[in-house]
Design a protein that fits this description.
66% of the residues lie in helices and 5% in strands. With 208 residues, it is mainly alpha-helical.
């Protein structure tokens, strides 16, 4: 009896070649997702790398991503790090391989929530802080708003309304984002229906 362990046949370890239609569909999705990158607030290549990982049945190496998208190693590494930082992909180990492999977060609800959260931190929060700085500039340190000229008070009030609006948006976002998960889809649909009904009742009151 042989003492050597059995070896796997190539067919048991290699990934089946995709059909021509499958490959074309992936290419179309990757191109489309790249075109949509600006809407998500990310760069084109980052979106394409994510799209490729999203379509993949198995983890992908940096080399595989480079070859498929025809991008440099530096670009692949930079965008993979960005995806990991955004929690849209993660590095994973594959048996019998020393190379880093990557998989995408494939729950679209979770992906959407993470992108919204990231953009809120990068874009909305700084806007609120800048507006507050402008408003505070109207009231020198050590002075009271009531002692400022009327025009200063009015402008401060207008700017404060903008700050309050953005602050409310942040609170609503922070409250709802934890609910944006696949298992909560029925609840989210009910919340949307409630919001729509409130909007319709508000329109009726306006026209009455």
């Amino acid at each position: 009896m042989s003492s050597h362990p059995p070896t796997s046949s190539p067919s048991s370890t290699s990934e089946p070649a995709p059909s021509a239609r499958h490959r074309e569909a992936v290419d179309r999705f990757v191109a489309f997702w790249g075109d949509m990158a600006s809407s998500w607030g990310i760069n084109r290549t980052m979106a394409q790398v994510y799209a490729l990982l999203y379509c993949a049945e198995r983890p992908r190496t940096t080399d595989q991503i480079m070859e498929r998208l025809q991008i440099s190693r530096g670009s692949a590494n930079m965008n993979l790090r960005a995806l990991v930082d955004w929690d849209l992909a993660e590095k994973t180990a594959v048996p019998d391989s020393r190379k880093d492999h990557y998989v995408a977060e494939k729950d679209v609800w979770t992906v959407t929530a993470r992108i919204i959260e990231k953009r809120e931190r990068q874009e909305v929060r700084p806007v609120r802080e800048r507006l507050q700085d402008v408003a505070d500039h109207l009231v020198p340190e050590g002075e009271e708003l009531d002692n400022r000229p009327e025009a200063d008070q009015q402008l401060y009030d207008r700017l404060s309304q903008l700050v309050k609006l953005i602050d409310m948006f942040e609170h609503v976002t922070e409250a709802l984002l934890p609910l944006v998960k696949t298992e909560n889809e029925p609840l989210l649909r009910r919340l949307v229906q409630l919001a729509e009904s409130l909007g319709e009742s508000g329109e009726d009151d306006t026209h009455s």
